[in-house]
Design brief:
5-stranded mixed sheet, 8 helices, alpha/beta
Length: 218
């Protein structure tokens, strides 16, 4: 048998690291080269009628915003993905932004490397970096509220190299947004955490998916 898996299987790696019974309804929000959501109920992935569940990165934040690869304009991904943020940072540097990032970011740096430099500058309390952190917090927290309203999880996991630059701050921003933007928030108990599987998430997830497929055919 041949099985093809998408990056959604990273959810299995996160589930495997949770204490038994910690959560039954999970949403994983990934902010990296793109922005996407993975939804699981009782450890099974929700895929949708056309296998497109969780395309939260293509919710339109601003209809007059930048063009997106999907053909629309102003998608969340054009603001909050790694490439979009790296592009914004480079434009700010070209405009003369006063920040130590001027010395750290090179012309060949990938979006992930640019964001890693940003994380370092945040840790050193660079003023521009902190302003950019606040902007990212706004995007991430708004996406979090949308995901909670749509999927009603008992746990939401934030992942990706964008999140990795200031995880505690972004979890706090998401938690604060719940109180203002989530319907019926006082009756919900949503735990917001940062992904733990790291660079091994994909291989762990694939291994779990293959094992599950094998056991289903025994």
């Amino acid at each position: 048998p041949v099985h093809v898996y998408s990056t959604r299987v990273r959810m299995f790696a996160e589930i495997g690291l949770l204490p038994p019974g910690a959560a039954r309804h999970l949403v994983l929000l990934n902010f990296a080269d793109g922005v996407g959501a993975t939804i699981a109920e009782h450890s099974r992935l929700m895929l949708g009628a056309t296998n497109r569940t969780g395309e939260i990165g293509h919710i339109i934040f601003d209809p007059n915003g930048p063009p997106c690869g999907c053909g629309h304009r102003g998608c969340l991904e054009t603001f909050a993905s790694g490439p979009a943020l790296a592009k914004r940072i480079r434009e700010d540097l070209a405009s003369g932004a006063e920040t130590r990032l001027q010395d750290w970011i090179g012309p060949e740096d990938t979006p992930k490397e640019v964001l890693t430099h940003l994380g370092r500058a945040i840790a050193e309390e660079d003023r521009y970096a902190l302003q950019t952190r606040d902007l990212i917090g706004d995007y991430v927290s708004r996406a979090t509220a949308i995901a909670i309203n749509c999927y009603d999880p008992d746990m939401l996991i934030l992942s990706g190299y964008v999140i990795a630059q200031c995880p505690e701050y972004l979890v706090g921003a998401a938690q604060r947004r719940v109180a203002s933007d989530v319907f019926d928030h006082y009756r919900r108990k949503v735990t917001i955490v940062v992904a733990k599987a790291g660079e091994q998430a994909l291989i762990r997830g694939i291994a779990t998916a293959v094992l599950r497929s094998s056991l289903e055919h025994v």
